[in-house]
Design goal:
The structure is a homohexamer of 152-residue chains. Chain A has helices spanning 26-38, 69-79, 126-136, 140-150; strands spanning 10-21, 43-51, 55-64, 84-94, 96-104, 107-116, 119-124. By secondary structure, the first copy, chain A, is an alpha+beta fold. Chain A folds into two domains: 11-93, Transcriptional regulatory protein pf0864 domain like (Alpha-Beta Plaits, 2-Layer Sandwich), CATH 3.30.70.1380; 96-150, no CATH class. Chain A has a four-stranded antiparallel sheet. In chain A, strands 5-6-7 form a three-stranded antiparallel sheet. In chain A, helix 3 (126-136) packs across helix 4 (140-150). Chains in contact: A-B, A-C, A-D, A-E, A-F, B-C, B-D, B-E, B-F, C-D, C-E, C-F, D-E, D-F, E-F. At the A-E interface, strand 2, helix 2 and strand 4 of A face strand 2, strand 4, strand 6 and strand 7 of E. Strand 4 of chain B pairs antiparallel with strand 4 (84-94) of chain C, so a sheet runs across the interface. Bound molecules: nickel (II) ion (NI) (12 copies). The site of one nickel (II) ion has 2 residues of chain E, from loops.
């Protein structure tokens, strides 16, 4: 298939930035998460943790590309109540990917084709499946199974 | 202040609907959560649980108004992979509320004033604070603290 | 298809039994979970909770059929360190189900067909997919997608 | 042994009070938890949940004796940011208990002896073991295992 | 304001020590957490994880200053049931801080003023707010909002 | 005692491999966890996390010996839906261990004796205690306490 964006299996480095939060509300953390994604984080996720003095805090983790560390440390200090940010680098193996498109009930669904040695995986793009599921008013799984059925 | 929507302290009943999910992806559950809110759930939340055979499943809980139980049971079966839904009623004590509005840096911020006996609580509306925080490009807490400062 | 075990959409009652544990190890709780399933629990799941004195405890929940409550309360007291068990009944709506079988790469895979009004869902049985995935040495998803592809 | 406080196996009712919190900090929730225990809650625990708009909220649960419901609903509204509290009653089976005391390295350790039909369980009291562990500067497990060794 | 303890924005290194626990009770882990803080850990937190054989274990994480690694590895082995401890160093960016004091209803409340480039954050000290909240018998949020109101 | 497998207190390196999963079911993750243990992982554990778009995902972590990194990265890509794996090395301090055996009600129970400087810990092997608990139909704790009682 003709790819939209093709990548070879990469071996790169990713920054892992983290901070524990016990003095910010869930509302504030939800807002920060969305601002950090807008600010260019590769990913943002939140882990519930139990902190000192019986506090149900969270660990906020941001993944950042090699050149984005300083910018995202600043963004974490800006949008959260953290006074400090810890960070380190991790190596990363990423599967080779290309894209192709199929049609499901008249709607285009992009497929991500990922390859690593003899492992091949085809994943319908979430956003396209979501659009179709909303239009058809069905579960996301109905669309995904329907798309899978065409791939055999 | 003149209220937008005023409620007395209520004593009502709320339906609690729940189901454990071990065969739906996080993507699918996120989609279902948003569809269930659209379908009229009072609230939807997800609790991580450990199910049999070492499965990191979730408990999906939906709160529904007295007349919405059957409709939301059907919506849960429609948008999730659940084969069954458990439900019960809980009594609920809800504080009396009215609304008022203040201005923060030229932007209107609604305040929810909640009362129960001698307990009084004033909460700036999230959506208004979010709008202001995005416009000013600051943390949500900066707006909320600024609004609180006006209330003294 | 000819069903193996066919059920109509039921409206039944299920017992929810629960206890908080802060003085049993994860090893002991894992053992208890397996004993409780053997003892006839409909389901057993564990929720991480934060208890008093900064203790990372768990809430153990057991679902039991209408006539099994007393037997499973006793089993919970026997296999866990709990000194007390709380319980209540919840109503339950369960989809109508029947079973059929397909073949995947020469292996039989049972399908659970669940129906509720106009909602239809077909789910390959986990145990059969697991057997096939182990034999073929692939991800569970590979088998499930392969089975889905035959259903279109 | 001569019991300090002896109870027969009881069949009672306990109130379960709950509220979801997304606009209170972990610090504030930790403070509320301690105030609610002081206010007479039988138990207080906190469950991490994922609420709407990607908020890492918590479910706060309070267990209360039959006559304490109204008082603890009020306390929850007072010490948390909740605008409403849900509650229901659950039946409870509690093992028969009596107390006895042993000595460990010269320090008194109370033992809770719990009985239900043919299930017997002897548990060293946490507070006494904690005092001993702090004095001896060892893990809690060292004291508990030492006490268990005397019971054979 | 005259600072009590003033720090410049630092770029330092912090040790992250961790171990998974599946054979210690929540009581024992709570005790260990408090001993580790006393032993000089910068922070201690507990993450619920699902371990092999359906065990609801925890990941215990200790943050330690550059010279405290060996001492805290030993303390973790002493107060927990762990047989091994993993550790690595992370870089850390910490905001510049100084302290000042305000008065709230006659009680002194220290304020932590944190600065990083053009980000400024003022946080009332938890311990002082807790003391005030207990004395006035109000939620922690009432004190914190009252203090914020003075800062405008 | 004569040891079965004796190790000195080691200072080694362990690989930490991780990936966030939001498009695999709990069933599929449970299956992957078991395959990864079979494939030679030192340990596998799953942490519930909150990912973008309100998704209740998990962080899958695999610990691997120094020479097993590439093999286990491949296994993670094979058995999960991950498109990329992050990894780093952590140093590890492991207590010196040897084994001995006691008898409990006629059944052999291996004991792991772990030593680090002046810290000594004796742990009955889980598998042996599990076998005994199943045979005697008691809680795991009953066996473990019985074994502890012999060690005094
Ligand atoms: Ni192609
Ligand atoms: Ni703090
Ligand atoms: Ni008013
Ligand atoms: Ni299932
Ligand atoms: Ni059929
Ligand atoms: Ni206890
Ligand atoms: Ni006695
Ligand atoms: Ni809200
Ligand atoms: Ni100053
Ligand atoms: Ni173990
Ligand atoms: Ni020996
Ligand atoms: Ni994705």
């Amino acid at each position: 298939a003709q790819s939209q964006k093709e990548t070879v299996a990469t071996q790169d480095q990713v920054w892992v930035l983290e901070t524990n939060l016990d003095d910010q509300t869930a509302e504030g953390i939800g807002f920060a998460q969305s601002q950090l994604l807008t600010a260019g984080a590769l990913d943002v996720y939140v882990t519930p943790v139990q902190m000192k003095k019986a506090r149900p805090g969270v660990l906020l983790t941001v993944l950042a590309a090699e050149n984005d560390r300083e910018r995202l440390v600043t963004a974490m200090l800006k949008y959260t109540t953290a006074k400090g940010i810890r960070y380190t680098q991790m190596a990363r193996t990423v599967m080779k990917r290309h894209f192709t498109t199929v049609s499901y009930k008249g709607m285009p669904i992009r497929l991500k084709v990922a390859t690593y040695h003899d492992i091949h995986r085809v994943t319908p793009e979430y956003e396209d499946c979501q659009t179709a599921a909303q239009k058809l008013d069905v579960a996301l799984e109905t669309v995904m199974a329907g798309v899978q059925a065409q791939l055999s």
